[in-house]
Design goal:
The complex is a heterodimer.
Chain A (H helix, E strand, L loop, with lengths): L1 H32 L4 H24 L8 E4 H18 L3 E6 L4 E4 L1 H18 L3 E9 L2 E8 L7 H7 L1 H12 L1 E2 L2 E2 L1 E6 L6 E7 L1
Parallel strand pairs in A: 2-4
Antiparallel strand pairs in A: 1-3, 4-5, 5-9, 6-7, 8-9
Chain B lengths: L7 E5 L3 H13 L4 E5 L2 H10 L4 E5 L1 E3 L2 E2 H10 L8 E6 L3 H8 L6 E4 L4 H17 L1 H8 L3 H13 L7 H14 L3 H14 L3 H13 L3 H14 L4 H13 L3 H14 L4 H13 L3 H14 L8 H13 L3 H10 L2 H5 L3 H14 L1 H16 L5 H13 L3 H13 L3 H14 L3 H28 L1
Parallel strand pairs in B: 1-2, 1-3, 3-6, 6-7
Antiparallel strand pairs in B: 4-5
Classes of the chains: A alpha+beta, B alpha/beta.
């Protein structure tokens, strides 16, 4: 079983190196010719992200999956999601806002949580009319990361998680974050501050 | 103009395509001078000769080496200045598992592919963090730990320190440990653990307990870490050291054997393996490990006279006096003259064991000093063996007593017994053992008074 994971990981690793080469060539061309090829770079990063997520899904859904928890500055994490997604949403006429009121470090799997947030923002961007907001707050000792949009909302929030791989991974990822005997949770609902879908990741 | 225009970048990667990509990205954030290193040795050479400002190092360097090992070696030899940024670049998740566990971490790590913007953001944050800790680093480098801890105490109160609260606690624990205050270090690591079960903090507790000679507790803590994070090899090293202190040399060797096989070019670990094998009576493994260290640890200055002496020691233990003598005589006389007393004593004791006519007179010359100086454990054992071989019961007894009464008694007992048995003097050792035990009982009331009164 481990062997299969190793083979998959090494394939993904090679593909990501190739994609990174492509991205760096584009960055060089942008600099040399003073052009913005952000869309092409975004497409490359999205492809790499998709590859990683597939591997992550496989890894997390097996038994005995473990996280790589590091102290993470929450504001920095949110800022990176903004950096990765804001321009792409803008092209679709959607504004991505950020509201982070958490100043401290939080123990979490920085890369997987970042990946899940990127995925949630992409999804929200597809359904939003004009706005998506990413926020981070502390509630009852939990870190709450929310992605809200002003779209029509989930058809049925209670079954939404079963539909998408991203949400399935989100649920598993939240549950694996355990601290002081409590574990995290993924909550989906409609309404929120923007009136559309609400994606909420709670981490203890 | 970019803030990184005047910075010197070093890109370390064994794959040409990946190297080229990293350079292109570095140049697109404004870096003007970007150097390459294609392998481990090349990287060490460049960093030694002209430390870059920013190092972008791939985690997988090929040839059994990793970026993590390079980072550890750079820190071990003090080759990274406080201002140098070391960023690990990784294509897969394996490194995240490592960085989440270990005590020694890079300034940051980044997953490929990444945009120039993301790199820039990360570099800016590292610079801000380095600026925040600058005062602490300064005192730490001067080894003024009281001042360093005072800076951290101020940092803790500072609003700007909120994003770094775990880092401040971690540095606090390390500063306590470095200053020799293992009790305070233990408390600092435990306070981190009340917040989150980080493997490196649990290992820190084990290390602090080990330093306080509380080996049973240390062992329980480190077993927990090793079981939970098998890829955390330093934890395995620490477990082995604790096992040795408890006299469980076979287990220590088993643990080290296993991790050394996964990290064939980690020569600090090989040295530790040799120590465990020597204590375990497996002279052949010790000899092979040390020969590997001396032949292949290519870091300049890494192979020390202590390594040569350790090799000779293992050869003596393996019964190969000729090879041991060759190693000893390979050390230049001028070099031996420059040794401190402990190394000189080991040298002449080992020489006396392999070539009595050369070594015995020199051992006799050092004898008065050896009778009443504090010596490290290795040296005491060398002297003890040579004294037994030369029928100098008094010199042998002096060493045996100190060892038996010291904190490493459990560690060395099997070796002592073997040495005494070899010369048919088991009764002497039993008598020394009895006397040390009596003395301990005699001193117990005073030793126990502290806790009882508190």
């Amino acid at each position: 079983m481990h062997r299969l994971l190793d083979i998959l990981a090494s394939g993904v690793h090679d593909a990501k190196n190739q994609l990174f080469a492509a991205e760096s060539m584009i960055a060089t061309a942008e600099k040399a010719h003073g052009v913005d090829l952000g869309e092409a770079r975004y497409a490359i990063e999205a492809a790499a992200g998709r590859l990683s997520r597939t591997l992550t899904t496989y890894r997390l859904l097996r038994h005995g999956a473990s996280l790589a928890v590091v102290p993470t500055v929450v504001a920095d994490l949110c800022e990176e999601v903004l950096l990765a997604q804001a321009k792409q949403l803008e092209r679709a006429g959607v504004r991505l806002g950020l509201a982070c009121s958490v100043l401290d470090e939080w123990p979490l799997d920085r890369d997987l949580v970042g990946d899940i947030l990127n995925n949630a923002v992409q999804n929200a961007g597809r359904h939003a009319r004009s706005r998506v907001e990413l926020s981070a707050v502390l509630e009852g000792g939990d870190l709450v990361l929310r992605v809200e949009d002003d779209g029509p909302g989930f058809a049925d929030p209670s079954t939404a998680a079963a539909g998408g791989t991203g949400l399935l991974v989100g649920e598993r990822l939240a549950a694996l974050h355990v601290r002081r005997g409590r574990s995290g949770a993924l909550l989906l609902c409609n309404g929120g501050r923007l009136g559309g879908a609400v994606f909420e990741l709670r981490l203890p | 103009m970019s803030a990184y225009a005047n910075k010197r970048f070093l890109v370390i990667d064994d794959l040409p395509l990946a190297r080229e990509s990293l350079r292109a990205i570095a140049q697109s954030v404004g870096a003007f001078a970007v150097e390459f290193a294609s392998n481990y040795q090349d990287a060490l050479y460049r960093i030694r000769n002209n430390t870059p400002d920013v190092i972008l190092c791939d985690y997988m360097l090929g040839d059994g080496r990793s970026g993590q090992q390079l980072l550890e070696e750079l820190r071990r030899f003090g080759l990274l200045s406080d201002d140098t940024i070391f960023m690990m670049v990784t294509g897969e998740q394996a490194y995240e598992q490592v960085v989440a566990a270990v005590e020694l971490v890079p300034d940051d790590y980044i997953i490929k592919p990444f945009s120039p913007d993301k790199l820039l953001l990360r570099l800016d944050r590292i610079s801000a963090k380095k600026k925040f800790f600058a005062g602490y680093y300064r005192e730490k480098r001067r080894q003024d730990y009281a001042a360093a801890l005072a800076v951290l105490a101020r940092n803790k109160e500072d609003e700007a320190g909120r994003p770094y609260r775990f880092e401040i606690l971690r540095q606090e624990a390390e500063a306590h440990l470095a200053s020799g205050n293992a009790g305070a270090a233990e408390a600092a690591y435990r306070s981190i653990l009340t917040d989150y079960e980080f493997p490196w903090a649990r290992a820190g507790v084990a290390r602090s307990l080990h330093r306080q000679n509380r080996h049973v507790e240390a062992r329980a803590e480190i077993e927990q870490v090793v079981a939970g994070t098998p890829s955390y090899f330093d934890a395995a090293d620490l477990k082995a050291s604790i096992c040795m202190a408890q006299g469980e040399h076979a287990e220590a060797q088993r643990v080290l054997d296993e991790v050394a096989r996964k990290t064939p070019r980690n020569f600090l670990r090989k040295r530790l393996l040799a120590e465990a094998a020597t204590l375990n009576g497996d002279a052949e493994t010790a000899r092979a490990a040390l020969a590997d260290v001396i032949a292949n640890d290519s870091m300049p200055g890494a192979v020390s006279p202590a390594d040569q002496l350790a090799l000779a020691r293992s050869q003596v233990a393996a019964g190969d006096s000729i090879a041991a003598e060759k190693v000893l005589l390979g050390l230049r006389e001028s070099e031996v003259k420059g040794f401190d007393l402990a190394l000189q004593a080991s040298y002449v004791a080992l020489l006396a064991l392999t070539s009595p006519e050369r070594g015995a007179p020199r051992l006799a010359g050092l004898r008065p000093a050896l009778l009443d100086t504090e010596l490290p454990t290795d040296t005491r054992i060398d002297v003890l063996r040579a004294a037994l071989a030369g029928a100098d019961a008094e010199l042998a007894e002096r060493q045996a007593r100190s060892l038996m009464a010291g904190p490493e008694a459990k560690k060395v007992f099997a070796l002592l017994r073997k040495a005494y048995t070899l010369h048919g003097r088991d009764a002497d050792l039993r008598e020394i053992q009895r006397q040390v035990a009596l003395e301990r009982i005699h001193h117990e009331p005073t030793a126990g008074a502290g806790p009882a009164a508190a």
